[in-house]
Amino acid sequence: MPVKATSNKPQATSCKLQAPCSLQLEVCSYKLAASPNLLPLAAYPLPLPHMSLLQVSDLHINAATGPVLRGISFETEALKNIAIAGATGSGKSTLLKAIGGLAQPTSGKILFGGKRVLGPDERLLPGHPQIAYLSQHFELRNNYRVEEELECLNQMSEGEAARIYAICEVDHLLKRRTDQLSGGEKQRIVTARLLTTRPKLLLLDEPFSNLDLAHKQVMQRVINEISTQLEITCMLVTHDPQDSLPWAHHILIMRDGLVVQEGTPQALYHHPVDAYAAGLLGKYNELSTTQADALGMQKNHFLLRPEAIQIHSSGKGPQATVEAVLFYGSYYETRLRYLDGSLLVRTLHAEWKPGDQLFISLTA
Ligand SMILES: Nc1ncnc2c1ncn2[C@@H]1O[C@H](COP(=O)(O)OP(=O)(O)OP(=O)(O)O)[C@@H](O)[C@H]1O
Protein backbone atom coordinates (compact mmCIF):
# COMPACT_ATOMS: atom_id res chain seq x y z
CA MET A 1 0.00 0.00 0.00
CA PRO A 2 1.76 3.19 -1.12
CA VAL A 3 2.22 5.82 1.55
CA LYS A 4 0.91 9.17 0.44
CA ALA A 5 3.35 12.05 0.68
CA THR A 6 1.94 14.83 2.81
CA SER A 7 1.06 18.21 1.44
CA ASN A 8 3.24 20.11 3.91
CA LYS A 9 6.16 21.88 2.28
CA PRO A 10 9.69 21.28 3.57
CA GLN A 11 11.33 23.68 5.95
CA ALA A 12 13.50 25.53 3.46
CA THR A 13 16.15 27.42 5.35
CA SER A 14 18.27 30.02 3.65
CA CYS A 15 21.95 29.78 4.33
CA LYS A 16 23.74 33.05 3.69
CA LEU A 17 27.38 32.85 2.78
CA GLN A 18 29.32 35.97 3.50
CA ALA A 19 32.49 35.67 1.46
CA PRO A 20 33.18 36.51 -1.25
CA CYS A 21 29.55 37.58 -1.57
CA SER A 22 26.22 36.37 -0.32
CA LEU A 23 24.47 33.61 -2.22
CA GLN A 24 21.16 32.10 -1.26
CA LEU A 25 21.29 28.35 -0.88
CA GLU A 26 18.06 26.48 -0.44
CA VAL A 27 18.67 23.80 2.09
CA CYS A 28 16.01 21.32 3.10
CA SER A 29 16.08 20.42 6.75
CA TYR A 30 14.38 17.22 7.82
CA LYS A 31 14.04 15.87 11.33
CA LEU A 32 16.25 12.82 11.39
CA ALA A 33 16.42 10.21 14.13
CA ALA A 34 20.21 10.49 14.21
CA SER A 35 22.32 12.98 12.32
CA PRO A 36 25.66 11.70 11.05
CA ASN A 37 28.70 13.50 12.39
CA LEU A 38 30.40 16.16 10.38
CA LEU A 39 32.76 14.52 7.93
CA PRO A 40 35.93 16.10 6.57
CA LEU A 41 35.70 17.79 3.20
CA ALA A 42 36.49 15.24 0.52
CA ALA A 43 38.40 15.70 -2.70
CA TYR A 44 36.14 15.55 -5.73
CA PRO A 45 37.89 13.94 -8.70
CA LEU A 46 36.20 14.01 -12.07
CA PRO A 47 34.34 10.81 -12.98
CA LEU A 48 36.23 8.49 -15.31
CA PRO A 49 34.61 8.10 -18.75
CA HIS A 50 33.39 4.52 -18.12
CA MET A 51 31.84 5.42 -14.76
CA SER A 52 28.26 6.46 -14.10
CA LEU A 53 28.22 10.17 -13.40
CA LEU A 54 25.49 9.76 -10.82
CA GLN A 55 24.18 6.73 -8.95
CA VAL A 56 21.22 7.03 -6.62
CA SER A 57 20.53 3.86 -4.60
CA ASP A 58 17.49 3.20 -2.46
CA LEU A 59 17.24 6.84 -1.41
CA HIS A 60 14.79 7.56 1.38
CA ILE A 61 13.99 10.91 2.91
CA ASN A 62 11.58 11.08 5.80
CA ALA A 63 10.14 14.35 6.99
CA ALA A 64 8.40 14.81 10.33
CA THR A 65 5.13 14.57 8.40
CA GLY A 66 6.00 11.29 6.68
CA PRO A 67 8.07 9.86 3.84
CA VAL A 68 8.98 12.23 1.01
CA LEU A 69 11.27 9.92 -0.99
CA ARG A 70 10.64 6.19 -0.58
CA GLY A 71 13.47 4.23 -2.15
CA ILE A 72 14.65 5.95 -5.32
CA SER A 73 17.26 4.22 -7.44
CA PHE A 74 18.60 5.19 -10.83
CA GLU A 75 21.88 6.02 -12.49
CA THR A 76 23.00 8.19 -15.32
CA GLU A 77 26.03 8.80 -17.47
CA ALA A 78 27.68 12.11 -18.19
CA LEU A 79 26.01 14.29 -20.83
CA LYS A 80 22.72 12.41 -20.82
CA ASN A 81 19.86 14.89 -20.41
CA ILE A 82 17.57 13.68 -17.63
CA ALA A 83 14.06 15.05 -17.13
CA ILE A 84 11.98 14.40 -14.03
CA ALA A 85 8.21 14.56 -14.37
CA GLY A 86 5.65 14.05 -11.63
CA ALA A 87 2.58 15.54 -10.03
CA THR A 88 2.89 18.35 -7.52
CA GLY A 89 4.24 16.99 -4.25
CA SER A 90 5.66 13.79 -5.78
CA GLY A 91 9.15 14.63 -4.50
CA LYS A 92 10.90 16.04 -7.59
CA SER A 93 12.48 19.06 -5.91
CA THR A 94 13.49 17.04 -2.87
CA LEU A 95 15.24 14.52 -5.13
CA LEU A 96 17.14 17.31 -6.93
CA LYS A 97 18.13 18.90 -3.63
CA ALA A 98 19.33 15.56 -2.26
CA ILE A 99 21.45 15.02 -5.38
CA GLY A 100 22.88 18.51 -4.95
CA GLY A 101 23.74 17.84 -1.30
CA LEU A 102 21.06 20.27 -0.11
CA ALA A 103 18.62 17.75 1.45
CA GLN A 104 19.79 15.13 3.91
CA PRO A 105 18.98 11.50 2.98
CA THR A 106 17.46 9.44 5.77
CA SER A 107 18.98 6.34 4.18
CA GLY A 108 20.35 5.22 0.84
CA LYS A 109 23.27 6.52 -1.15
CA ILE A 110 24.03 9.14 -3.75
CA LEU A 111 27.32 8.71 -5.58
CA PHE A 112 28.69 11.39 -7.88
CA GLY A 113 31.74 10.32 -9.85
CA GLY A 114 31.93 7.29 -7.54
CA LYS A 115 32.06 9.37 -4.33
CA ARG A 116 29.23 9.84 -1.88
CA VAL A 117 27.47 13.20 -1.97
CA LEU A 118 27.40 14.56 1.56
CA GLY A 119 24.16 16.00 2.86
CA PRO A 120 23.77 19.37 4.58
CA ASP A 121 24.13 17.73 8.01
CA GLU A 122 27.59 16.48 7.02
CA ARG A 123 29.17 19.61 5.55
CA LEU A 124 29.80 23.04 6.98
CA LEU A 125 28.80 24.57 3.68
CA PRO A 126 25.87 22.64 2.16
CA GLY A 127 26.14 21.61 -1.46
CA HIS A 128 28.62 19.83 -3.71
CA PRO A 129 31.43 21.73 -5.46
CA GLN A 130 30.69 20.13 -8.83
CA ILE A 131 26.90 20.12 -8.67
CA ALA A 132 24.96 23.35 -9.17
CA TYR A 133 21.29 23.69 -8.26
CA LEU A 134 19.17 26.35 -9.95
CA SER A 135 16.26 26.83 -7.61
CA GLN A 136 12.80 28.02 -8.59
CA HIS A 137 13.39 30.71 -5.96
CA PHE A 138 16.66 32.23 -7.14
CA GLU A 139 17.73 35.64 -5.87
CA LEU A 140 20.04 38.46 -6.87
CA ARG A 141 21.20 41.19 -4.52
CA ASN A 142 19.55 44.54 -5.09
CA ASN A 143 21.43 47.66 -6.17
CA TYR A 144 24.40 45.83 -7.62
CA ARG A 145 25.53 45.77 -11.19
CA VAL A 146 25.13 42.47 -13.02
CA GLU A 147 28.91 42.26 -13.50
CA GLU A 148 29.39 42.55 -9.72
CA GLU A 149 26.89 39.75 -9.13
CA LEU A 150 28.63 37.59 -11.68
CA GLU A 151 32.06 38.21 -10.17
CA CYS A 152 31.10 36.90 -6.74
CA LEU A 153 31.55 33.16 -7.35
CA ASN A 154 33.69 33.40 -10.45
CA GLN A 155 36.54 30.90 -10.59
CA MET A 156 37.30 31.57 -14.24
CA SER A 157 39.59 33.68 -16.34
CA GLU A 158 38.11 36.73 -18.05
CA GLY A 159 37.91 34.90 -21.38
CA GLU A 160 36.23 31.82 -19.95
CA ALA A 161 33.71 33.89 -18.01
CA ALA A 162 32.96 35.94 -21.14
CA ARG A 163 32.10 32.68 -22.93
CA ILE A 164 29.70 31.72 -20.13
CA TYR A 165 28.03 35.15 -20.28
CA ALA A 166 27.64 34.81 -24.05
CA ILE A 167 26.17 31.29 -23.77
CA CYS A 168 23.73 32.48 -21.09
CA GLU A 169 22.88 35.52 -23.26
CA VAL A 170 23.63 37.98 -20.46
CA ASP A 171 26.71 39.64 -21.98
CA HIS A 172 24.67 42.70 -23.01
CA LEU A 173 23.37 43.11 -19.43
CA LEU A 174 26.65 43.36 -17.52
CA LYS A 175 26.41 47.11 -16.79
CA ARG A 176 22.71 46.96 -15.79
CA ARG A 177 21.59 47.17 -12.19
CA THR A 178 19.99 44.02 -10.82
CA ASP A 179 16.68 45.79 -10.16
CA GLN A 180 16.43 46.71 -13.86
CA LEU A 181 16.05 43.16 -15.15
CA SER A 182 13.15 40.94 -16.18
CA GLY A 183 12.57 37.62 -14.40
CA GLY A 184 13.99 35.70 -17.35
CA GLU A 185 17.13 37.87 -17.44
CA LYS A 186 17.63 37.42 -13.69
CA GLN A 187 17.32 33.66 -14.09
CA ARG A 188 19.97 33.59 -16.82
CA ILE A 189 22.30 35.70 -14.68
CA VAL A 190 21.89 33.29 -11.75
CA THR A 191 22.55 30.43 -14.19
CA ALA A 192 25.71 32.15 -15.44
CA ARG A 193 26.82 32.75 -11.85
CA LEU A 194 26.40 29.05 -11.08
CA LEU A 195 28.31 28.09 -14.21
CA THR A 196 31.32 30.19 -13.23
CA THR A 197 31.87 27.69 -10.39
CA ARG A 198 32.65 25.03 -13.05
CA PRO A 199 29.96 22.46 -12.16
CA LYS A 200 29.82 19.09 -13.91
CA LEU A 201 26.13 18.60 -13.18
CA LEU A 202 23.48 21.31 -13.35
CA LEU A 203 20.16 20.65 -11.60
CA LEU A 204 17.35 22.80 -12.97
CA ASP A 205 14.20 22.96 -10.86
CA GLU A 206 11.30 23.97 -13.11
CA PRO A 207 13.36 26.57 -14.99
CA PHE A 208 10.51 27.50 -17.37
CA SER A 209 7.70 27.82 -14.88
CA ASN A 210 7.58 31.63 -14.68
CA LEU A 211 8.70 32.54 -18.17
CA ASP A 212 6.76 33.89 -21.12
CA LEU A 213 7.26 32.13 -24.45
CA ALA A 214 10.07 34.42 -25.64
CA HIS A 215 12.12 34.11 -22.43
CA LYS A 216 11.39 30.39 -22.31
CA GLN A 217 12.83 29.92 -25.79
CA VAL A 218 15.97 31.80 -24.77
CA MET A 219 16.33 29.64 -21.65
CA GLN A 220 15.81 26.46 -23.69
CA ARG A 221 18.58 27.61 -26.05
CA VAL A 222 20.84 28.38 -23.07
CA ILE A 223 20.26 24.94 -21.51
CA ASN A 224 21.05 23.24 -24.81
CA GLU A 225 24.27 25.20 -25.14
CA ILE A 226 25.24 24.40 -21.56
CA SER A 227 25.22 20.69 -22.32
CA THR A 228 26.58 20.81 -25.87
CA GLN A 229 29.13 23.65 -25.64
CA LEU A 230 30.15 23.46 -21.98
CA GLU A 231 29.68 19.68 -21.65
CA ILE A 232 27.78 19.98 -18.39
CA THR A 233 25.20 17.28 -17.67
CA CYS A 234 21.76 18.74 -17.04
CA MET A 235 18.90 17.33 -15.01
CA LEU A 236 15.59 19.13 -15.33
CA VAL A 237 12.33 19.07 -13.40
CA THR A 238 9.37 20.08 -15.51
CA HIS A 239 5.61 19.71 -15.62
CA ASP A 240 5.42 20.30 -19.35
CA PRO A 241 5.97 17.35 -21.72
CA GLN A 242 6.78 19.84 -24.49
CA ASP A 243 9.92 20.67 -22.47
CA SER A 244 10.95 17.14 -21.55
CA LEU A 245 10.06 15.02 -24.62
CA PRO A 246 12.24 16.78 -27.23
CA TRP A 247 15.10 17.49 -24.81
CA ALA A 248 15.60 14.47 -22.59
CA HIS A 249 17.55 11.30 -23.32
CA HIS A 250 15.92 9.70 -20.29
CA ILE A 251 12.83 10.57 -18.25
CA LEU A 252 11.99 9.61 -14.67
CA ILE A 253 8.31 9.58 -13.73
CA MET A 254 7.77 10.21 -10.03
CA ARG A 255 4.73 9.55 -7.91
CA ASP A 256 4.38 9.77 -4.13
CA GLY A 257 8.14 9.70 -3.55
CA LEU A 258 8.85 6.84 -5.94
CA VAL A 259 10.11 6.54 -9.51
CA VAL A 260 7.23 4.60 -11.05
CA GLN A 261 8.64 4.46 -14.59
CA GLU A 262 11.80 5.48 -16.40
CA GLY A 263 13.02 5.23 -19.94
CA THR A 264 13.45 7.10 -23.19
CA PRO A 265 10.86 9.75 -24.09
CA GLN A 266 9.61 7.51 -26.93
CA ALA A 267 9.20 4.45 -24.73
CA LEU A 268 7.41 6.36 -22.00
CA TYR A 269 5.16 8.29 -24.39
CA HIS A 270 4.05 5.20 -26.30
CA HIS A 271 4.10 2.65 -23.47
CA PRO A 272 3.16 4.36 -20.22
CA VAL A 273 2.69 1.99 -17.29
CA ASP A 274 -0.62 3.57 -16.35
CA ALA A 275 -2.89 6.56 -16.85
CA TYR A 276 -0.83 8.65 -14.40
CA ALA A 277 2.36 8.17 -16.43
CA ALA A 278 0.45 8.68 -19.70
CA GLY A 279 -1.03 11.96 -18.47
CA LEU A 280 2.32 13.43 -17.48
CA LEU A 281 3.61 13.18 -21.05
CA GLY A 282 0.56 14.25 -23.02
CA LYS A 283 -3.15 13.89 -23.57
CA TYR A 284 -4.62 10.41 -23.72
CA ASN A 285 -7.93 8.54 -23.95
CA GLU A 286 -8.77 5.81 -21.49
CA LEU A 287 -11.21 3.61 -23.39
CA SER A 288 -13.99 1.64 -21.77
CA THR A 289 -14.35 -2.07 -22.57
CA THR A 290 -17.23 -1.27 -24.95
CA GLN A 291 -15.21 1.38 -26.78
CA ALA A 292 -12.11 -0.82 -27.02
CA ASP A 293 -14.12 -3.83 -28.25
CA ALA A 294 -15.80 -1.83 -31.01
CA LEU A 295 -12.39 -0.71 -32.25
CA GLY A 296 -11.22 -4.33 -32.32
CA MET A 297 -8.84 -3.98 -29.40
CA GLN A 298 -8.32 -7.01 -27.23
CA LYS A 299 -7.72 -5.56 -23.82
CA ASN A 300 -10.44 -4.46 -21.42
CA HIS A 301 -8.81 -1.20 -20.62
CA PHE A 302 -6.75 0.72 -23.08
CA LEU A 303 -4.87 4.00 -23.24
CA LEU A 304 -4.75 5.70 -26.63
CA ARG A 305 -3.04 8.95 -27.58
CA PRO A 306 -5.31 11.36 -29.53
CA GLU A 307 -3.19 10.95 -32.67
CA ALA A 308 -3.62 7.16 -32.58
CA ILE A 309 -7.20 7.54 -33.83
CA GLN A 310 -8.28 8.56 -37.34
CA ILE A 311 -11.50 10.23 -38.38
CA HIS A 312 -13.26 9.54 -41.73
CA SER A 313 -16.35 11.27 -43.08
CA SER A 314 -17.45 8.04 -44.79
CA GLY A 315 -16.61 4.38 -44.63
CA LYS A 316 -17.28 1.58 -42.23
CA GLY A 317 -16.35 0.92 -38.64
CA PRO A 318 -17.50 2.49 -35.40
CA GLN A 319 -19.38 5.77 -35.61
CA ALA A 320 -18.96 8.80 -33.39
CA THR A 321 -20.57 12.23 -33.10
CA VAL A 322 -18.56 15.46 -33.07
CA GLU A 323 -18.99 17.38 -29.81
CA ALA A 324 -16.38 20.11 -30.22
CA VAL A 325 -13.52 21.12 -32.51
CA LEU A 326 -10.64 23.02 -30.90
CA PHE A 327 -7.96 24.87 -32.87
CA TYR A 328 -4.40 24.68 -31.47
CA GLY A 329 -2.50 26.46 -34.24
CA SER A 330 -0.63 23.61 -35.89
CA TYR A 331 -3.33 20.99 -35.24
CA TYR A 332 -6.95 20.47 -34.19
CA GLU A 333 -8.43 18.45 -31.38
CA THR A 334 -11.88 17.01 -31.99
CA ARG A 335 -13.90 15.74 -29.05
CA LEU A 336 -16.24 12.93 -30.09
CA ARG A 337 -19.10 11.21 -28.33
CA TYR A 338 -18.33 7.56 -28.89
CA LEU A 339 -20.51 4.78 -27.46
CA ASP A 340 -20.50 5.03 -23.66
CA GLY A 341 -17.90 7.81 -23.41
CA SER A 342 -15.98 10.47 -25.24
CA LEU A 343 -12.82 10.39 -27.30
CA LEU A 344 -10.21 13.01 -28.09
CA VAL A 345 -8.71 12.89 -31.59
CA ARG A 346 -5.87 15.00 -32.96
CA THR A 347 -5.87 15.92 -36.64
CA LEU A 348 -4.12 18.38 -38.94
CA HIS A 349 -7.36 19.48 -40.58
CA ALA A 350 -10.94 19.62 -39.34
CA GLU A 351 -13.69 19.83 -41.96
CA TRP A 352 -16.42 18.83 -39.50
CA LYS A 353 -18.52 20.63 -36.93
CA PRO A 354 -20.41 19.73 -33.74
CA GLY A 355 -23.26 17.31 -34.47
CA ASP A 356 -21.60 15.66 -37.50
CA GLN A 357 -21.58 11.84 -37.61
CA LEU A 358 -18.12 10.43 -38.46
CA PHE A 359 -16.34 7.08 -38.65
CA ILE A 360 -13.29 6.29 -36.61
CA SER A 361 -10.45 3.77 -36.86
CA LEU A 362 -7.06 3.22 -35.30
CA THR A 363 -4.09 4.85 -37.02
CA ALA A 364 -2.12 2.17 -38.83
N1 LIG B 1 11.11 19.11 4.97
C1 LIG B 1 9.89 18.68 4.74
N2 LIG B 1 9.04 18.54 5.75
C2 LIG B 1 7.81 18.10 5.55
N3 LIG B 1 7.31 17.79 4.33
C3 LIG B 1 8.10 17.93 3.27
C4 LIG B 1 9.42 18.36 3.42
N4 LIG B 1 9.97 18.41 2.18
C5 LIG B 1 9.03 18.03 1.31
N5 LIG B 1 7.92 17.73 1.96
C6 LIG B 1 6.69 17.26 1.34
O1 LIG B 1 7.09 16.23 0.49
C7 LIG B 1 6.38 16.28 -0.73
C8 LIG B 1 7.32 16.45 -1.89
O2 LIG B 1 7.78 17.80 -1.97
P1 LIG B 1 8.59 18.34 -3.23
O3 LIG B 1 8.70 19.83 -3.10
O4 LIG B 1 9.84 17.59 -3.36
O5 LIG B 1 7.59 17.94 -4.39
P2 LIG B 1 7.60 18.38 -5.92
O6 LIG B 1 7.27 17.16 -6.70
O7 LIG B 1 8.85 19.09 -6.27
O8 LIG B 1 6.37 19.38 -5.94
P3 LIG B 1 6.12 20.68 -6.90
O9 LIG B 1 5.94 20.15 -8.28
O10 LIG B 1 4.89 21.28 -6.33
O11 LIG B 1 7.33 21.58 -6.76
C9 LIG B 1 5.38 17.40 -0.60
O12 LIG B 1 4.15 16.87 -0.17
C10 LIG B 1 6.01 18.27 0.45
O13 LIG B 1 5.02 18.99 1.14
From TrEMBL:
Residues 54-281 form the ABC transporter domain. Keywords: ATP-binding, Nucleotide-binding, Transport. InterPro entries: AAA+_ATPase, ABC_SmlMolc_Importer, ABC_transporter-like_ATP-bd, Mo/tungstate-bd_C_term_dom, P-loop_NTPase, Transp-assoc_OB_typ2. SUPFAM superfamilies: MOP-like, P-loop containing nucleoside triphosphate hydrolases. Coiled coil: none annotated. It comes from the Bacteria. Pfam families: ABC_tran, TOBE_2. SMART domains: AAA. This is Iron(III) transport system ATP-binding protein.
